[in-house]
Automatic annotation (TrEMBL):
Belongs to the alpha-carbonic anhydrase family. Keywords: Lyase, Metal-binding, Zinc. It comes from the Bacteria. CDD domains: alpha_CA_prokaryotic_like. It comes from Candidatus Thiothrix phosphatis. This is Carbonic anhydrase. InterPro entries: Alpha_CA_prokaryot-like, CA_dom, CA_dom_sf, Carbonic_anhydrase_a-class, Carbonic_anhydrase_a-class_CS. Residues 25-249 form the Alpha-carbonic anhydrase domain. Its EC number is 4.2.1.1.
Amino acid sequence: MKTWFATGILLLSTGCASVHDNKPPHWTYEGAEGPEHWGELADAYKACATGKNQSPVNLDNQHAVAAKLPPLQLAYGAGGYEELNNGHTIQVNYQPGGSLTLDGHRYGLKQFHFHAPSENQIDGKTYPLEAHLVHADQDNNLAVIAIMFTESAQDNPNLEPFWSQMPTHPDEKTALMPLVDVAKLLPAKRDYYRFSGSLTTPPCSEGVVWLVMKQPVNASKTQIEKFTQIMGHPNNRPIQPVNARPLLK
Ligand SMILES: [Zn+2]
């Protein structure tokens, strides 16, 4: 996932500054500033190297713990008003209003964005595309819903309202009108995995509730290629060790 809390989002994700000013240092998905080095780029990024509850993970059904997870309580509506290319992902920012209620606790939807190929895996399988729906509660605790995409012959019409306007260059953004409803991206069946993880980008902060939908949705090869071509590089962090964490299914 992309960001840690709502107000830090744009500054964090578009800033590419040196260690010597107060902005977070630049990072990438390959080379000297790639995932293997994130923890060394700044003190603030240390969790990327030393954290024990990092994301993404492989959701292995053999080791996942059967739990009676309750149906997700989602209330979204059309609120995606802006589409941003921040150089690390394509992100749709959401107006206040959409929410996830979890353990009786309300998390507001802040934004959703994409990774290609997927970051999380299910039974060792990597998907060509993964969406992250980022929510924060009033104390900026985060909950992320992940949706996997499989490749289909047909375009996914629910991507088109914003896929067709995807900003092609870093720091470019597009206003979305009509507003986009992320609920249309959800799979019909909403069973999910749950585990405690982290941001998948620096600063790799932990304490993030992860909810990964078991059922994938579709995107065509053309749609997937449009994203990967605009990004110009894979934007997935490698799989992280599960360590002592329970993965609930
Ligand atoms: Zn993400």
